C-alpha cells in the first residue's frame, strides 16, 4: 500500500525492551528498526526549539536563529492534513482506504514528533479528524499494524508478555516506563488483550492501536495529560492464523492457550503492579477483551480499583444518553420503562447496554430487578434469548431469558415482540433490513433504530437506509459517523453514539476526586449529563448528541457530576474543593496553555 507519501518525518522507538512485543529483540524497535533515540516519549524537539535547547546543542535540529511559532506549526500540519482529506473526497474506494490510512499514520507520527502540535490540531479540528484518530479508520490501521505503525517506528506503548510475565517483571516494566517515558507518572492506562478489536475480532498484538487511540481522545476530549497516559497490550497470542502467521506480525506467535486461571493471574499481576507503581488512584480502562473474559475481569476488579470496561459500560452510557435524549422526540413513549427493546447482539456491548437500561429503569421507578428486565430482549447467533434456552446461556444473558416464544432471526423476533427500539451491536452488516424497519414503522410513529457496530463496514444499516425505509420517521443513531441525509425535504443529522462523549469525562471526574471505584451509577450519571447537553435545535434535526466541537465542555460537565457524586458518597481520596467545576477545569491539560 502507498501509505507513506504524506509523511515528512519518521522516528524510531526507544531501545528499552518494555516498549516492544515480547518476540522483538531488546536492542531493536517494534519492527526491527534501529533505536538511536533515548529521549522521553514526549520530548518535543523540533526545528522550532529555542536557540540554547538541548536539541540544538546536540545537533538534532538545524542551528537556525528564528523560532517557528506554535500556531504556524499547527497551521502547517492542518494544511498537510487538508491536502489528504481533499484527496480522500475525490478517490476511488480502493484509493480512499489507502489515503485514510496515510492520514492516520501522518497524525500518529505527529503525535510522537510534536505532541503539542498534534493535540492542538485535533482539538481545533476534532469533528473532522476524529475518524482518523480513532474509529472507523483505527480498525483498518490495526489490521495493517506493521504497515501503518511499523514503517514509522512509532512508539506504541507497553507490551506485557502474557506467557512469561509475573508481577515483579511487570513492576520492572512499569517503573522503567515511569522513569524514562512518562511525565513524572501515569494517571490513565488503557489496556487490551486484542481478542475482540471493534467488530474485527482477534487481532492479537495488532490491537495496540485501540488503547493508543483511546488515550489520544482522553487528552483531546477530556484534558488528561498525554505525558501521563499509558497504552498497554497484554500479549496472550492470537487465534486468527492469518494474522498470527504474517511475517510482519510482531506479537507472540502462539494461539491463545492460557487457561482462565492463568489469564486471571496475569490480569491480577498487571493490576496490582500498576497500582503499586502509579498509586491506587490510577485510572485503568479495559478495552476490547473477549466476551469470555471481559465480564469476569470487570466483576473482579470494579470493587477494588478505579477501573471500568468501556465496551461494556462506556458504550452503555453513551447509548443510554441517546435514549434519554430521544424521549424528547417520541410522543408515544415518554419513559424508558415504556419502551420495548430488542438487541441484535448479546456480547459485551449488548448486555452492557441492556444492564444499564435496566439500572436506569430501577433508579427512575423503584421497580424490582425482574420488572426492569422484562421489556428488554436479546437476539444472539442462535436466535431470541428465551426461557427454553436457559441451560445453554452464559450467565450474563440469563436475566433476559423471557418466556415469550421463540424466534431464530431478528426479523422473526421483531414480528413476535413488536419492539419500539432495535439496537444493533452484532458486527453483522445489513441485518437491519427494509422489512425490519418497515414493520417497526407500521406499528410505531417514531421507532428507535440504533445501528452501533463499528467500523462503518459492520453497521447493521446506514443512516440513509433507516430514514428511507421509515419515511424519515425513525430516530437514528450509529456507532460510526454518517453524513446528513435529506428526506422529504428535511435534512436529518444522524447522531453518532461515540463513546468519546462519555469515557473522557468519566475518567476525568474519577481522577479529579481520586475515586476509589467507578460504579454503574457513575455510568448512569454520565448518560444523564450527556443528554442534558443536547440543544433543542439538534433534536429538531433528529440528532441525539451534541456536536463534537463541544466535546470538551461535555466532558467537563460529566466530570463535574461524577466527581461531585464521589464526594457525596465518601469514596473520594482527595479533599473536596470549594468549586468542583473549577477543580475539574484546573486539572484539564490543554495544548494551548
From TrEMBL:
Cofactor binding, per record: Divalent metal cations. Prefers magnesium or manganese.
Taxonomy, superkingdom? Eukaryota
Q: Where is the signal peptide?
A: 1-18
What GO biological process terms does the UniProt entry carry, in alphabetical order? malate metabolic process
| Residues that, per the record, bind (S)-malate | 196, 454, 498
Q: Which NCBIfam families match?
A: PRK13529.1
From the Swiss-Prot or TrEMBL record, give the protein name.
Malic enzyme
Question: What organism is this sequence from?
Answer: Triparma laevis f. longispina
Amino acid at each position: 500500500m502507498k501509505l507513506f507519501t504524506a509523511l515528512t518525518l519518521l522516528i524510531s522507538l526507544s531501545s528499552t525492551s518494555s516498549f516492544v512485543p515480547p518476540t522483538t529483540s531488546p536492542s531493536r524497535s517494534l519492527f526491527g528498526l534501529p533505536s538511536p533515540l533515548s529521549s522521553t516519549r514526549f520530548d518535543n524537539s523540533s526545528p522550532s526549539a529555542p536557540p540554547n535547547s538541548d536539541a540544538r546543542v546536540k545537533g538534532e535540529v538545524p542551528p537556525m536563529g528564528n523560532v517557528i511559532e506554535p500556531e504556524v506549526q499547527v497551521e502547517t500540519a492542518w494544511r498537510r492534513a487538508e491536502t489528504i482529506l481533499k484527496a480522500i473526497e475525490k478517490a476511488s474506494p480502493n484509493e480512499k482506504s489507502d489515503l485514510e490510512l496515510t492520514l492516520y499514520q501522518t497524525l500518529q507520527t505527529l503525535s510522537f514528533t510534536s505532541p503539542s502540535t498534534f493535540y492542538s490540531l485535533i482539538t481545533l479540528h476534532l469533528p473532522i479528524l476524529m475518524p482518523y484518530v480513532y474509529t472507523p479508520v483505527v480498525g483498518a490501521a490495526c489490521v495493517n499494524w506493521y504497515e501503518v505503525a511499523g514503517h514509522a517506528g512509532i512508539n506504541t506503548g507497553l507490551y506485557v508478555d502474557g506467557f512469561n510475565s509475573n508481577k515483579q517483571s511487570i513492576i520492572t516494566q512499569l517503573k522503567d516506563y515511569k522513569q524514562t517515558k512518562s511525565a513524572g507518572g501515569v494517571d490513565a492506562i488503557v489496556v487490551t488483550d486484542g481478542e475482540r478489536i471493534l467488530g474485527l475480532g482477534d487481532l492479537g498484538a495488532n490491537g495496540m492501536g485501540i488503547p493508543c487511540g483511546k488515550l489520544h481522545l482522553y487528552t483531546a476530549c477530556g484534558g488528561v495529560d498525554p505525558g501521563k497516559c499509558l497504552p498497554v497490550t497484554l500479549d496472550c497470542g492470537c487465534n486468527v492464523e492469518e494474522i498470527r502467521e504474517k511475517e510482519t506480525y510482531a506479537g507472540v506467535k502462539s494461539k491463545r492457550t492460557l487457561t482462565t486461571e492463568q489469564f486471571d493471574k496475569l490480569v491480577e499481576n498487571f493490576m496490582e503492579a500498576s497500582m503499586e507503581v502509579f498509586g491506587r488512584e490510577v485510572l485503568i480502562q479495559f478495552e476490547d477483551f473477549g466476551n469470555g473474559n471481559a465480564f469476569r475481569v470487570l466483576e473482579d476488579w470494579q470493587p477494588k480499583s478505579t477501573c471500568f470496561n468501556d465496551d461494556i459500560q462506556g458504550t452503555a452510557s453513551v447509548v443510554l444518553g441517546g435514549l434519554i435524549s430521544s424521549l424528547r422526540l417520541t410522543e408515544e413513549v415518554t419513559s424508558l420503562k415504556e419502551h420495548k427493546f430488542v438487541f441484535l447482539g448479546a456480547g459485551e456491548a449488548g448486555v452492557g447496554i441492556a444492564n444499564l437500561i435496566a439500572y436506569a429503569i430501577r433508579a427512575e421507578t423503584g421497580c424490582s430487578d425482574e420488572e426492569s428486565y422484562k421489556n428488554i430482549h436479546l437476539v444472539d447467533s442462535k436466535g431470541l434469548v428465551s426461557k427454553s434456552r436457559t441451560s445453554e446461556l452464559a450467565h450474563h444473558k440469563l436475566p433476559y431469558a423471557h418466556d415469550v416464544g421463540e424466534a431464530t432471526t431478528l426479523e422473526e423476533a421483531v414480528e413476535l415482540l413488536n419492539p419500539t427500539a432495535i439496537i444493533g451491536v452484532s458486527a453483522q452488516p445489513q441485518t437491519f433490513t427494509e422489512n425490519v424497519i418497515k414493520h417497526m414503522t407500521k406499528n410505531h410513529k417514531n421507532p428507535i433504530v440504533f445501528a452501533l457496530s463499528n467500523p462503518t463496514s459492520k453497521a447493521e444499516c446506514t443512516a440513509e437506509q433507516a430514514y428511507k425505509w421509515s419515511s424519515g420517521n425513525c430516530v437514528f443513531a450509529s456507532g460510526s459517523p454518517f453524513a446528513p441525509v435529506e428526506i422529504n425535504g428535511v435534512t436529518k443529522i444522524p447522531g453518532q453514539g461515540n463513546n468519546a462523549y462519555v469515557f473522557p469525562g468519566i475518567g476525568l471526574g474519577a481522577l479529579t476526586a481520586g475515586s476509589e471505584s467507578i460504579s454503574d451509577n457513575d455510568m448512569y450519571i454520565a448518560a444523564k449529563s450527556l443528554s442534558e447537553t443536547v440543544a433543542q435545535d439538534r433534536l429538531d434535526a433528529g440528532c441525539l448528541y451534541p456536536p463534537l466541537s463541544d466535546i470538551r465542555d461535555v466532558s467537563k460537565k460529566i466530570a463535574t457530576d461524577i466527581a461531585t457524586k464521589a464526594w457525596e458518597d465518601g469514596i473520594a481520596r482527595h479533599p473536596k474543593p470549594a468549586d468542583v467545576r473549577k477543580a475539574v477545569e484546573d486539572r484539564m491539560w490543554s495544548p494551548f496553555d
